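A favour, since you know our structure tokens better than I do. Go ahead and set the record down below.
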Amino acid sequence: MEYVYAALLLHKLNKDITEDNVKNVIKATGASPDEVKIKALVAALSEVNIEESLKATPMAMAVPATAAAADAGAAQAKDDKKEEKKDEKKEEEALEGLSSLFG
């Protein structure tokens, strides 16, 4: 995966995607470059128009975790309120029943 990211970074910076450039990017991250993977990546990308591939790839919008959690929290709060109202109604009904016994 890091090799693909290196290639994308080089593409974004308008640098040639060569074995040496990919190797330098991988080294800059502190990882040990694998010569075989680099050769395979560069060979595979030599016939690919990266810009067109990026345009053709649908990008999913990432929903921030806080927003998703907030939505879940709001739904839970709504459910809690409904449950609370049901409990209050049951208590009122019980009290009405008791008051009818004692007049």
Notes: The radius of gyration is 31 Å. DSSP finds five helices and no strands in the chain. The longest helix spans residues 65-102.
